[in-house]
Amino acid sequence: MIFPIVIATTPARAQQRKIALGASIILVAVVAITLPFANIHLTRVDAFVPVIQTVMCLIDLLTAVLLFAQFAVYPQRAMLALASGFVFSALFAFLQTLAFPGAYGPAALIGDELNSAGWLFVLWRTTFLLAVTVYALSKDTVDRTIRSGPSMSVIIGVTVACVATATAAMTWIATADVKYLPSLYENAIQQTSFANYINVFLSLFGLTTLILLFVRRNTILDHWLIVTLLAWLPNFIVAVLFTVVRFTVGWYMARIFALCAGPSLLFALLAETMMLYTRLAAAARIGAQQQRELTATVAALEQSKQSLERVNFWLDTALKNMAHGLSMFDKDQRLILCNERYNEIYGLARSQTYPGTTLYSILEARFALGNGPEKIDAHIDERLSGVRDSRASYAENELHDGRVVAVNYRPMPRGGWVAIHEEITERKRAEEQRGLLVAELDHRVKNVLARVTAVAKYTSQGSHSVDEFLRTLDGRIQSMADAHTLLSQSQWHGVNLVVLVQRQLAPYTTKTNTVISGPDITLTAVSTQALAMVLQELVTNAVKYGSLSTPHGKVLVNWDSRDGADGAPRLAFAWRETGGPSTKAPSHSSYGTNLIRNLIPREIGGTVDLMFAPEGLRCDIEISLTHRANLVRSSPES
Fold it and tell me: pLDDT tens digits for 98-110?
């Protein structure tokens, strides 16, 4: 990965290339102008060299520091080599002033008077050009071993130490052992022929390095290194063209060009570093702002997530606890969601109702409309027509097991529908039962009214006065009401015979005048109503004319269950009166007598044998018991 904040890897923009090119053109133009005057001797200024080269030393050291900083950010051997070259340049720039004749005194501080300064200059430029050549050849190579090795500070420290050691060794050779080296100067200002060869070599070496770097140029650093190399070329050109090189116009101008070369690169590095870090600071501010916004967004998203989780929890809880089924389909007839109650109603497994399942597949699985594909297609067409018309609809579907499900459909704004499914089997049964009860009630009310009408009619025919008519009618209607009350208490499931007899005799019963005995038999509603009216007539007759009209009379009522001639169970009911006035058959039958003899045969198919014996009235009744279950237990009661 190439770091965009490192100058060594930042491609030069068009404007930066133009600035570097302009500086190069200016250098070439100045060199071209001053070259004709290069051999003119000027006054010797001994302080010129130490001042110029001390400044150059400081500039090169600062440049090296910046390059080492670039290396620390983006470790690359090319950057390490170039920084080492500027360290070499800084050290040799200062050491050469110590060996330069007249720089700090009449004699040189180190080395001999003639050659040490020259050889130090050759070493200065050779080491720098070697470093730039290594940089140009390896700058596009990414070495990952440096990043995984020792820390950057250790690598930089070792490199500086190696450069310093090499500089010290070469300086020792150029000063202490200079006598073993070829001479470069015949006197303080004139070069030897061997020095000219060295100058040609340095010129060719510098030009080769310049061409190599120009061919491989790419970054900002590359362009300003080219400017630096161009600024040093006048030193070699003057040395090649002229034998006398020191203290001439060309010599002074070459050193000034070299002085300008270092600051140009340093200023470019500083300017680009400031620009890059300004952008970095702006990016950091923007990043911090975006981080704050992102943090706020994340917090809002987290809050929204928590709210959504709560809503999902509430929705899931609501769906699970809904008494009705819920389903939601999209415009393509694919399931969006459904709750567990929906699956329970239609007997579906979760694997059959996962999101995306088609309505056709679900209808096939639940057999809601039978196995016929045409019925399923008809159901789907009906749903789609409702969705197209954006209207709500209602349907009642009978499932294959007989259950009935009511479905309310509501279309959704973007297609599809939501449906509420309610199982209404019990409600439908209740409605049917209510209809039957209403019909039964209507039938019974009509029967009661008809019976009351008949009772009133025949009671009026047998009554001699209005008071007698009212009393008799009241008693008969009250008997019907008592029977109705008993049936209502048992929800019309039937009335126990003991309770019915006791209820009819209750107003007139004492401890001695009635005896009631018989097994526990439950009569049907129809049998209860018929027998209740007969008992009312028997009780009324006993009170008015029979055994209950005297203090010593007694009524004996008993019954039993036995098989008839056809083998079916029958109820044998016996009414006996004793101790009362002597009875005889009336000359003509009253309404009460006719009711006793005819009501039971007509209403429930029984038989009645009514006898007016002298010792008291006797009435034997037989009623068919359709179910032996009506005979629960037998226990005498009195």
Answer: 888 777 777 778 8
